Amino acid sequence: MSPTSIDRREFLATIAAAQGAFVLGFWLPLRADAQTKPGTVWYEEPATREVNAWIVIAPDDIVTIRIAQTELGQGVWTSNAMMVAEELQCDWSKVRPQYASANRDAREKAPEWTLNVPGNGAQDPKGGGVPTFGNRDRVGVSGIPDSLYRRMRTNAASSVKDGRYYLQLAGAEARERLLLAAAAMWNVPVSQLAAKNSVITHAGSGRKTTYGAIAQRAAETPHPHPETITIKSPDQWTLMGTEQKNLDVPSKVTGQAIYGIDVRLPGMKWAAVKTCPVYGGDVKRYDFEAIRHMPGVRFAVQFPIPDPALTRGRIFSGGVAVIADSWYQAKTAIDKLPIEWDIPPVNAAFTSANMRESLLTALDRPGTVRASQGDVDAAFTNATRIVEATYSTPFLPRARMEPGNATVLVTNERVDIWIGDQSPQETRFSASRITGIPETNVHLHLCHLGGGFGRNGNGPQAEHAIMIANAHRGTPIHMLWTREEDFIGTTYRAMGVAHLKAALDADGWPIAMDVRTAMQEGGFGPEASFHVTSRYHVPNYRYSNHTTNFHVPVGTRRGVGQAAHEFYRESFMDELARAAGKDPYRYRRELLARTNLPYKQDMITALDMAAEMSGWSTPLPKGTARAIALEERGAEGDGMATISAMVHTVSISRDGKVKLERVDVAHETGFGLVNPLSVKKQIEGQITWFYNDAMHQACTIKDGRIVENNFHVFPLSRINEDPPVINIRFFPTKHWLVGMGHDRATSVQSAIGDAIFQITGKRFRDLPYAKHDLRWT
Amino acid sequence: MAFELVVNGTRHTIDADPQTPLLWVIRDQVGLTGTKFSCGIGQCGACTLHVDGRAVRSCSVPAASAIGKPVMTIEGLSADGSHPIQIAWKELDAPQCGYCQSGMIMSTLALLRARPNPTDADIDAQITNACRCSTYHRIRQAIHRAAELMKA
Predict the structure, then answer these.
(1) Which residues in chain A touch residue B120, judged by CB atoms under 8 angstroms apart?
(2) Distance (Å, rounded) from C-alpha B107 to C-alpha B42?
């Protein structure tokens, strides 16, 4: 069978026969339950009729819950399922998540009853919060208004926040219809029935039935007034709010979980790529003849810079793919492939040093003013003391463990893509644009992701694979980046600088503050942490953003704006407290207390609790210090917010070795955390993530290229750098959270800086700290 | 050139260049995908498996080096998750994205064979695999728990 002339139907039949694992859309509606290969997670046509778009109940009571976000370690596979199961009142042990169909999401409209957000916003426990993506704009790249699952993107720590009310509604609607079906079967009023653990009971007669037994009737029983269905408020939760282990963990300890990289198709060929190491560069020429003879090599494909319309305006690089029977053969060959690059000289001229200079210069040019209160300039003339500091943060990649990859089959009729993806609808849009095949015929088969850490952390992996597969229609192509290519293919958190300047009165309290931050045009989160108003009271306040233009594609790396900006803000608060001769905890506390911020009491509670947990005032051995910081998102308004505070206990040996000894975390729950275990895990992980950022990580630019492009030069913290003690305590608050999967533990950065200052007397304001001389005597 | 490998107790005839890294032979020829590729230079440990009872970073050793020696991958530990290390991992809910965990578990197996009662210092010294989700806090607890379970 020639892999390049494979017949579509023959191919599908071959897949089904060889693996019994693939149900491709409506083409082969095999009985999914009997066919599934262990570990596969993508959407399959159900063997029995679904109750609604989220829920399929099989005769054996197994409940399949469709998940519209991608599991990449944040626990969404479990928390989304919990929100549905809470209302469905099914047996949790029989819940099996599966990815929702991106094609159905595009094809079908959301049920009317899921569209109205209940309650009165963020401060109503019976409310649903306000989904960020409730009203989306067209086209393709931004999603589809009122599509079946509302949003299939996985980003902004918003899966729980945005999905909660309509996932609860989906569970409630199904439960009500199961009850209606049983009532009709027994000819009793539905009000006499109760549902619990997948069993429906009629109290009067003692009759019982199971969800599995009644599900097909329920599927045929519409709800007469679905708009009247309400969801449980947190005081009624029984499953939500309890610690539940992640449902995907069993498959992840046996090696059975299927990530994109694990997809295998009959006749599949592998592609390794090399793209121009300077962004914006392209291939001038390459010599395939030099490698044509190498083992397994089939062909080469040159591909252009992915259309910026498909990559949100970001300019990546053009490149060459070598396709071979195995990936290692393709990779070995492409390493020997002579390629001459066409590199824009202006891009090749960038270095970290000249980029930093450029950002510092930008600080002195007019910027975008995002807050302006009082008369800052006048207040500075009345200062007893002026404190100012300049901080900087480097370019940082996501560097997720699974390198970018996608498996794509293009035929003249349709496109099939197997991928771990945080933006499935955008990938379908890309596939349609690249191949000219209508979006309705682009089918995605979603896999788990080996880490995400930022929407489209994937970069143009899908676009590369689609371009390659489109050049050889009929052959399934699995494109896999090397680690080095992954460093080129990702987007970066923008390099940043900040200048903070404060006027203090005679008692050391700030009377004016001028904050300027700079990052390149298109950098994400410029408003974070400083906009609208100062989190710490100051009567005269100005905040402005300043930009310049660089060639590095930037994106939403974990923490987005907060990660760098809370480092700037909290570091500066430590410096002000020390300049004022005051305790950094009490200094912060007093300045929060003087504000009118809606959640100031929650912020004070967080600081008090973290300080108390840490034994803030108790003595520490020489060479060990504590530092505290506030973490907030949304504190400037009365919408959703997430607030925490941490105290970090840090030791530094005389020869300059830093150890994060202990972290005390006070974190709000809002009205309720859906899965507190998942939240704990996210906090634990983010502590060492930001320790890693603070101490080690930086990507520098030389001759326009990313210098640190594999793990021998881009260091990852290991278990020896994980703090031995992490104490996490939650406190209730009266609003809904905005999410917590990406901007917690940013405090590690400022805290280590202040601990270094306390122990060594040296103040370093540019990350990472490990590049500095931290020795002391 | 064909050669033979014994993987998880099963003999496989491999039709590949014996200089191919063991990782790719295991994933592509043997067809076991639990062992992961991440850095390709032996730095991160996602590709850790056992050759002759020793933990090996399989992206950086040729398949030829495993000829005549038993190879064990994550799939060989137990398919149903009943090995004490897997049980401990599930008890602690250790994985997040899970991509590094096969390697992490195989490194732990090597550690516990050498040191059935590992100290935290042993763990720091011997478990050098990278986890980008930084699940280390639970991994450390899971290693101690696995040590208990393996003695039971």
Answers:
(1) 724
(2) 13
